[in-house]
Amino acid sequence: MLLRKGTIFRSGMKIAVSGKGGVGKTMLVALLSNILRESGYSVLAIDADPNPTLAMALGFPDSERITPISEMGDLIEERTGARPGEAAPYFKLNPKVDDIPENYWVEHEGIRLMVMGRLKKGGSGCYCPENALLEALVAHLLLNRDEAVVMDMEAGVEHFGRATAKGVDQLIVVVEPGRGSIETAYRIRELAGDIGLHSIKAVGNKVRSDKDREFLLAAMPDFEFLGFIPYDQSVIDAGLGGLPLSDASSAVMGQLKDITSRLSIGE
Fold first, then answer.
1. How far is 75 from 80, CA to CA, in rounded Å?
2. Which of these, 140, 163, 221, 228, could form a disulfide with 204 (CB 3.0-4.6 Å)?
3. Residue 247 sits in which domain range?
4. Which residues lie closer than 8 Å to 67 by C-beta, 6 or more apart?
5. Cα(187)–Cα(166) distance, rounded to whole angstroms?
6. Is 149 part of a structural domain of the chain?
7. pLDDT (tens digit per residue) in 119-175
Protein backbone atom coordinates (compact mmCIF):
# COMPACT_ATOMS: atom_id res chain seq x y z
CA MET A 1 0.00 0.00 0.00
CA LEU A 2 1.28 3.43 -0.88
CA LEU A 3 -0.92 5.28 1.58
CA ARG A 4 0.45 6.17 4.97
CA LYS A 5 -0.43 3.80 7.80
CA GLY A 6 -3.53 5.04 9.58
CA THR A 7 -5.20 6.43 6.47
CA ILE A 8 -8.84 5.34 6.46
CA PHE A 9 -10.89 5.24 3.29
CA ARG A 10 -14.20 3.57 2.65
CA SER A 11 -14.22 1.77 -0.69
CA GLY A 12 -16.84 4.07 -2.20
CA MET A 13 -15.29 7.41 -1.28
CA LYS A 14 -16.18 10.33 -3.53
CA ILE A 15 -13.78 13.23 -4.12
CA ALA A 16 -14.50 16.30 -6.26
CA VAL A 17 -11.72 18.67 -7.36
CA SER A 18 -12.39 22.25 -8.44
CA GLY A 19 -10.54 25.51 -8.91
CA LYS A 20 -9.85 28.33 -11.31
CA GLY A 21 -8.90 27.29 -14.83
CA GLY A 22 -5.20 26.60 -15.21
CA VAL A 23 -4.37 26.02 -11.53
CA GLY A 24 -3.66 22.31 -12.04
CA LYS A 25 -6.81 20.56 -10.87
CA THR A 26 -6.70 18.07 -13.77
CA MET A 27 -3.13 17.19 -12.79
CA LEU A 28 -4.27 16.60 -9.22
CA VAL A 29 -7.16 14.37 -10.32
CA ALA A 30 -4.91 12.32 -12.61
CA LEU A 31 -2.19 11.79 -10.02
CA LEU A 32 -4.65 11.14 -7.20
CA SER A 33 -6.41 8.55 -9.38
CA ASN A 34 -3.11 6.79 -10.05
CA ILE A 35 -2.12 6.76 -6.38
CA LEU A 36 -5.46 5.28 -5.35
CA ARG A 37 -5.26 2.65 -8.10
CA GLU A 38 -1.75 1.68 -7.04
CA SER A 39 -3.00 1.42 -3.47
CA GLY A 40 -5.57 -1.18 -4.43
CA TYR A 41 -8.72 0.86 -4.97
CA SER A 42 -11.14 0.48 -7.86
CA VAL A 43 -11.02 3.97 -9.37
CA LEU A 44 -13.53 5.76 -11.57
CA ALA A 45 -12.27 9.13 -12.81
CA ILE A 46 -14.85 11.63 -14.09
CA ASP A 47 -14.03 14.54 -16.36
CA ALA A 48 -16.79 17.11 -15.73
CA ASP A 49 -14.77 20.08 -16.97
CA PRO A 50 -16.08 21.87 -20.09
CA ASN A 51 -12.56 21.62 -21.51
CA PRO A 52 -11.93 17.89 -21.01
CA THR A 53 -8.25 16.98 -20.79
CA LEU A 54 -8.26 14.33 -18.06
CA ALA A 55 -7.96 11.45 -20.52
CA MET A 56 -4.73 12.90 -21.88
CA ALA A 57 -3.39 13.55 -18.37
CA LEU A 58 -4.06 9.90 -17.50
CA GLY A 59 -2.27 8.71 -20.61
CA PHE A 60 -5.32 7.30 -22.41
CA PRO A 61 -4.48 6.46 -26.03
CA ASP A 62 -6.47 8.40 -28.66
CA SER A 63 -7.91 10.57 -25.89
CA GLU A 64 -9.22 13.09 -28.41
CA ARG A 65 -11.57 10.44 -29.82
CA ILE A 66 -13.50 9.93 -26.59
CA THR A 67 -17.03 11.29 -27.04
CA PRO A 68 -18.49 13.13 -24.04
CA ILE A 69 -21.82 11.86 -22.72
CA SER A 70 -23.38 15.27 -23.40
CA GLU A 71 -22.70 14.79 -27.14
CA MET A 72 -24.29 11.33 -27.39
CA GLY A 73 -27.53 12.44 -28.99
CA ASP A 74 -28.97 8.94 -29.45
CA LEU A 75 -28.34 8.02 -25.82
CA ILE A 76 -29.83 11.28 -24.55
CA GLU A 77 -32.93 10.82 -26.70
CA GLU A 78 -33.31 7.20 -25.64
CA ARG A 79 -33.14 8.01 -21.94
CA THR A 80 -34.95 11.36 -21.76
CA GLY A 81 -37.33 11.17 -24.72
CA ALA A 82 -35.91 14.32 -26.30
CA ARG A 83 -33.03 14.99 -28.65
CA PRO A 84 -30.48 17.70 -27.81
CA GLY A 85 -31.03 20.92 -29.72
CA GLU A 86 -34.61 20.17 -30.65
CA ALA A 87 -37.66 21.84 -29.12
CA ALA A 88 -39.02 19.49 -26.47
CA PRO A 89 -41.55 20.81 -23.95
CA TYR A 90 -41.52 17.48 -22.10
CA PHE A 91 -38.74 15.06 -21.28
CA LYS A 92 -37.74 12.79 -18.42
CA LEU A 93 -36.10 14.65 -15.55
CA ASN A 94 -35.00 11.41 -13.87
CA PRO A 95 -33.84 9.18 -16.72
CA LYS A 96 -32.49 5.67 -16.23
CA VAL A 97 -28.71 5.90 -15.84
CA ASP A 98 -27.61 2.97 -13.68
CA ASP A 99 -26.38 0.94 -16.68
CA ILE A 100 -24.51 3.80 -18.35
CA PRO A 101 -21.15 3.61 -16.50
CA GLU A 102 -20.30 0.03 -17.51
CA ASN A 103 -21.42 0.64 -21.11
CA TYR A 104 -19.79 4.02 -21.69
CA TRP A 105 -16.68 4.32 -19.58
CA VAL A 106 -13.26 3.75 -21.13
CA GLU A 107 -10.47 1.99 -19.28
CA HIS A 108 -6.70 2.26 -19.37
CA GLU A 109 -4.17 0.68 -17.01
CA GLY A 110 -6.76 -0.03 -14.34
CA ILE A 111 -8.46 3.37 -14.28
CA ARG A 112 -11.97 3.79 -15.64
CA LEU A 113 -12.86 7.17 -17.10
CA MET A 114 -16.12 8.88 -17.98
CA VAL A 115 -16.12 12.18 -19.87
CA MET A 116 -19.32 14.04 -19.06
CA GLY A 117 -19.14 17.09 -21.31
CA ARG A 118 -20.50 20.59 -20.94
CA LEU A 119 -23.64 21.47 -19.01
CA LYS A 120 -25.74 24.15 -20.67
CA LYS A 121 -26.00 27.33 -18.65
CA GLY A 122 -29.29 28.83 -17.60
CA GLY A 123 -29.01 31.69 -20.08
CA SER A 124 -28.81 29.32 -23.05
CA GLY A 125 -32.50 28.41 -22.90
CA CYS A 126 -34.69 26.14 -20.86
CA TYR A 127 -33.50 23.19 -18.83
CA CYS A 128 -32.43 20.71 -21.50
CA PRO A 129 -32.40 16.89 -21.84
CA GLU A 130 -28.61 16.63 -21.83
CA ASN A 131 -28.49 18.48 -18.50
CA ALA A 132 -31.11 16.11 -17.09
CA LEU A 133 -29.08 13.08 -18.14
CA LEU A 134 -25.75 14.45 -16.89
CA GLU A 135 -27.11 15.49 -13.52
CA ALA A 136 -28.86 12.16 -13.01
CA LEU A 137 -25.68 10.33 -13.98
CA VAL A 138 -23.50 12.35 -11.60
CA ALA A 139 -26.00 11.71 -8.81
CA HIS A 140 -25.88 7.97 -9.50
CA LEU A 141 -22.06 7.90 -9.55
CA LEU A 142 -21.77 9.79 -6.27
CA LEU A 143 -24.63 8.19 -4.36
CA ASN A 144 -24.86 4.61 -5.58
CA ARG A 145 -21.46 3.39 -6.79
CA ASP A 146 -18.84 1.48 -4.77
CA GLU A 147 -15.74 2.71 -6.61
CA ALA A 148 -13.46 5.46 -5.44
CA VAL A 149 -14.77 8.29 -7.62
CA VAL A 150 -12.51 11.26 -8.37
CA MET A 151 -14.19 14.10 -10.30
CA ASP A 152 -12.46 16.89 -12.24
CA MET A 153 -14.86 19.85 -12.22
CA GLU A 154 -14.99 23.34 -13.58
CA ALA A 155 -14.80 26.30 -11.21
CA GLY A 156 -18.26 25.78 -9.77
CA VAL A 157 -20.71 23.17 -8.53
CA GLU A 158 -23.11 23.10 -11.49
CA HIS A 159 -23.19 19.30 -11.66
CA PHE A 160 -24.38 19.03 -8.06
CA GLY A 161 -27.88 19.32 -6.69
CA ARG A 162 -28.55 19.60 -2.97
CA ALA A 163 -29.18 15.86 -2.70
CA THR A 164 -26.17 14.97 -4.86
CA ALA A 165 -23.84 17.06 -2.71
CA LYS A 166 -24.46 14.69 0.18
CA GLY A 167 -22.55 12.03 -1.74
CA VAL A 168 -19.34 14.07 -1.88
CA ASP A 169 -16.95 13.11 0.90
CA GLN A 170 -14.43 15.82 0.09
CA LEU A 171 -14.31 18.85 -2.18
CA ILE A 172 -10.72 19.85 -2.88
CA VAL A 173 -10.11 23.36 -4.18
CA VAL A 174 -6.79 23.77 -6.00
CA VAL A 175 -5.15 27.19 -5.72
CA GLU A 176 -1.94 28.73 -6.96
CA PRO A 177 -0.18 31.80 -5.55
CA GLY A 178 -2.31 34.55 -7.09
CA ARG A 179 -5.29 36.69 -6.16
CA GLY A 180 -7.52 35.43 -8.97
CA SER A 181 -7.09 31.83 -7.89
CA ILE A 182 -7.80 32.70 -4.27
CA GLU A 183 -10.94 34.69 -5.11
CA THR A 184 -12.22 31.73 -7.14
CA ALA A 185 -11.58 29.39 -4.20
CA TYR A 186 -13.75 31.51 -1.91
CA ARG A 187 -16.47 31.69 -4.55
CA ILE A 188 -16.44 27.90 -4.94
CA ARG A 189 -16.73 27.45 -1.19
CA GLU A 190 -19.68 29.86 -1.08
CA LEU A 191 -21.49 28.01 -3.88
CA ALA A 192 -20.78 24.66 -2.25
CA GLY A 193 -22.12 25.89 1.07
CA ASP A 194 -25.35 26.96 -0.61
CA ILE A 195 -26.11 23.32 -1.48
CA GLY A 196 -24.93 21.89 1.83
CA LEU A 197 -21.44 20.76 0.81
CA HIS A 198 -19.19 21.76 3.69
CA SER A 199 -16.29 19.30 3.68
CA ILE A 200 -13.90 21.52 1.73
CA LYS A 201 -10.10 21.61 1.81
CA ALA A 202 -7.44 23.33 -0.28
CA VAL A 203 -4.30 22.19 -2.06
CA GLY A 204 -1.64 24.70 -3.06
CA ASN A 205 -0.08 24.10 -6.48
CA LYS A 206 2.81 25.61 -8.47
CA VAL A 207 4.55 26.57 -5.24
CA ARG A 208 8.07 27.76 -6.01
CA SER A 209 9.25 28.77 -2.56
CA ASP A 210 8.40 29.09 1.12
CA LYS A 211 7.28 32.62 0.30
CA ASP A 212 4.59 31.25 -2.04
CA ARG A 213 3.46 28.83 0.64
CA GLU A 214 3.25 31.53 3.29
CA PHE A 215 1.38 33.80 0.88
CA LEU A 216 -1.36 31.19 0.42
CA LEU A 217 -1.60 30.47 4.13
CA ALA A 218 -1.87 34.17 4.95
CA ALA A 219 -4.41 34.87 2.18
CA MET A 220 -6.60 31.88 3.09
CA PRO A 221 -6.41 31.60 6.89
CA ASP A 222 -9.84 29.98 7.18
CA PHE A 223 -9.05 27.15 4.72
CA GLU A 224 -7.46 23.87 5.76
CA PHE A 225 -4.62 22.96 3.40
CA LEU A 226 -3.93 19.31 2.66
CA GLY A 227 -0.52 20.21 1.28
CA PHE A 228 1.50 22.14 -1.26
CA ILE A 229 2.71 20.84 -4.62
CA PRO A 230 5.98 22.27 -5.93
CA TYR A 231 6.23 23.86 -9.34
CA ASP A 232 8.00 21.43 -11.67
CA GLN A 233 8.58 22.24 -15.34
CA SER A 234 8.67 18.53 -16.18
CA VAL A 235 4.97 18.27 -15.29
CA ILE A 236 4.19 21.19 -17.61
CA ASP A 237 6.24 19.58 -20.37
CA ALA A 238 4.49 16.23 -19.90
CA GLY A 239 1.11 17.93 -20.22
CA LEU A 240 2.13 19.76 -23.37
CA GLY A 241 3.47 16.56 -24.85
CA GLY A 242 0.43 14.47 -23.98
CA LEU A 243 2.48 12.20 -21.71
CA PRO A 244 1.19 10.55 -18.51
CA LEU A 245 1.70 12.96 -15.61
CA SER A 246 2.40 10.17 -13.13
CA ASP A 247 5.80 9.57 -14.76
CA ALA A 248 6.80 13.23 -14.93
CA SER A 249 8.08 14.17 -11.47
CA SER A 250 9.04 12.13 -8.43
CA ALA A 251 8.95 15.29 -6.27
CA VAL A 252 5.35 16.04 -7.26
CA MET A 253 4.32 12.41 -6.80
CA GLY A 254 5.87 12.41 -3.32
CA GLN A 255 3.82 15.42 -2.31
CA LEU A 256 0.66 13.89 -3.79
CA LYS A 257 1.14 10.73 -1.74
CA ASP A 258 1.44 12.85 1.40
CA ILE A 259 -1.69 14.78 0.45
CA THR A 260 -3.58 11.55 -0.22
CA SER A 261 -2.59 10.20 3.18
CA ARG A 262 -4.23 13.26 4.80
CA LEU A 263 -7.49 12.64 2.95
CA SER A 264 -8.74 10.23 5.58
CA ILE A 265 -12.40 9.53 4.98
CA GLY A 266 -13.89 7.20 7.52
CA GLU A 267 -16.73 4.72 7.31
1. 8
2. 228
3. 14-261
4. 115
5. 19
6. yes
7. 866 544 456 898 899 999 999 999 998 889 999 998 888 888 888 888 999 999 999
